[in-house]
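Design request, tokens follow.
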């Protein structure tokens, strides 16, 4: 299962703003390009492990600052789905 975690974390840590918008649309999470740029900029180079509750919580807080609390809640639900084993 570690390889699965590595693949997901790598994608999270290298995602572009355009990809974030695309995935937002796919999962019905409203995010503007400007918000996505802020989130992608935060993620770049941070090496965040979304399978670690503390790191995921910190990420969601940063998303709330960039895109608002409702978007952060929806993203958190999605991340939790990814981390269920």
């Amino acid at each position: 299962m570690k390889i699965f975690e590595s693949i997901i974390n790598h994608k999270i840590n290298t995602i572009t703003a355009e990809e974030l918008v695309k995935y937002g649309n796919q999962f019905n999470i409203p995010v503007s390009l400007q918000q996505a740029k802020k989130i992608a900029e935060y993620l770049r180079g941070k090496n965040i492990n979304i399978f670690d509750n503390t790191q995921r919580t910190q990420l969601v807080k940063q998303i709330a600052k960039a895109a608002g609390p409702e978007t952060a809640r929806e993203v958190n639900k999605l991340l939790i789905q990814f981390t269920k084993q």
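Comment from the thread starter after seeing the answer: thanks! The helical segments are 2-14, 17-26, 33-43, 53-67, 69-83.
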